[in-house]
């Protein structure tokens, strides 16, 4: 029996482009490029994010090129500014990425403020976002789970807002669902959880809250079996989205029988 609702009738739309998959994946921390390829395929990801300051996508012709295993004609390559601590660094990095990717403008902005927690520097993030939007970039932006800041970034012109669920790489899961709910409820652009997911149930919870997608790297690459975990995350994101669309039952203090006792024969 074919389901009435499918991924095809519920695309994730970013900067006017529809995507079937709501799971975005990173490309760092894998054992090698082959594992990166296999995990990306198992995740069903269409958007893959690349740390321009750490990954070769053509800067060094003598090093293995990520684009050989994740070709841009098959995947949307999303350059990010991981490792940048100022707006100027981030803008300069994404200008380079635009040159390397033949003028593509979809980018992920992150400006870090602390080397221990990798929390974002929101002041520098706002500054960089304004500069990049003014230059014609389509900015997906990593930020804290502050609803006011999320709205400001949307109003600047960012095409997606990406609040953390917990510190990058922590695997702590969704730590403040109420902030995420507030962000989702007030957003007119996609809200994509970025950072903190540890396992499949975390991804499902993010989607059940109404988030439009989840981006992850460490949760997959750091698993004992990354390719299998990528598959699990794919299913979790799909299940969480379906549950959100279906609408959960209200929480009740007392039981409510599935089969009423009234009117039983005998």
UniProtKB/TrEMBL annotation:
Reaction(s) the record says it catalyses: [ThiS sulfur-carrier protein]-C-terminal-Gly-aminoethanethioate + 2-iminoacetate + 1-deoxy-D-xylulose 5-phosphate = [ThiS sulfur-carrier protein]-C-terminal Gly-Gly + 2-[(2R,5Z)-2-carboxy-4-methylthiazol-5(2H)-ylidene]ethyl phosphate + 2 H2O + H(+)
EC number in record: 2.8.1.10
Active site: 108
Localization of this protein: Cytoplasm
UniProtKB keywords: Cytoplasm, Schiff base, Thiamine biosynthesis, Transferase
Coiled coil: none
InterPro entries: Aldolase_TIM, Thiazole_synthase_ThiG, ThiG
Pathway annotation: Cofactor biosynthesis; thiamine diphosphate biosynthesis
Binding annotation for 1-deoxy-D-xylulose 5-phosphate: 169, 195-196, 217-218
Domain Thiazole synthase ThiG: residue ranges: 14-260
Top-level taxonomic group: Bacteria
Record SUPFAM superfamilies: ThiG-like
Family membership: Belongs to the ThiG family.
Subunit structure: Homotetramer. Forms heterodimers with either ThiH or ThiS.
Function: Catalyzes the rearrangement of 1-deoxy-D-xylulose 5-phosphate (DXP) to produce the thiazole phosphate moiety of thiamine. Sulfur is provided by the thiocarboxylate moiety of the carrier protein ThiS. In vitro, sulfur can be provided by H(2)S.
Protein name: Thiazole synthase
Species whose genome carries this gene: Luteimonas terricola
């Amino acid at each position: 029996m074919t389901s009435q609702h499918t991924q095809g009738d519920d695309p994730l739309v970013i900067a006017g482009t529809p995507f079937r998959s709501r799971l975005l994946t990173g490309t760092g921390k894998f054992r090698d490029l082959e594992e990166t390829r296999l995990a990306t395929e198992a995740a069903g990801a269409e958007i893959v994010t690349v740390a321009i300051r750490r990954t070769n996508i053509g800067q060094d012709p003598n090093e293995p090129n990520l684009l050989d295993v994740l070709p841009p004609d098959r995947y949307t390559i999303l350059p990010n500014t991981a490792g940048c601590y100022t707006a100027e660094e981030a803008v300069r990095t994404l200008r380079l990425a635009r040159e390397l990717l033949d003028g593509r403008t979809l980018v992920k902005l992150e400006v870090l403020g602390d080397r221990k927690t990798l929390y974002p520097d929101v002041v520098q993030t706002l500054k960089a976002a304004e500069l990049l939007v003014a230059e014609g970039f389509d900015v997906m932006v990593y930020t804290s789970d502050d609803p006011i800041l999320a709205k400001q970034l949307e109003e600047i012109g960012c095409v997606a807002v990406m609040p953390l669920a917990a510190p990058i790489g922590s695997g702590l899961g969704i730590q403040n669902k109420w902030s995420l709910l507030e962000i989702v409820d007030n957003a007119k652009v996609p809200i994509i959880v970025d950072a903190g997911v540890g396992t499949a149930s975390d991804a499902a919870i993010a989607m059940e809250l109404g988030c439009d997608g989840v981006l992850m790297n460490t949760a997959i690459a750091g698993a004992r079996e990354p390719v299998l975990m990528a598959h699990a995350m794919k299913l979790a994101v799909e299940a969480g989205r379906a549950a959100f669309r279906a609408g959960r039952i209200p929480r009740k203090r007392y039981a409510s029988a599935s089969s009423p006792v009234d009117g039983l024969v005998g």
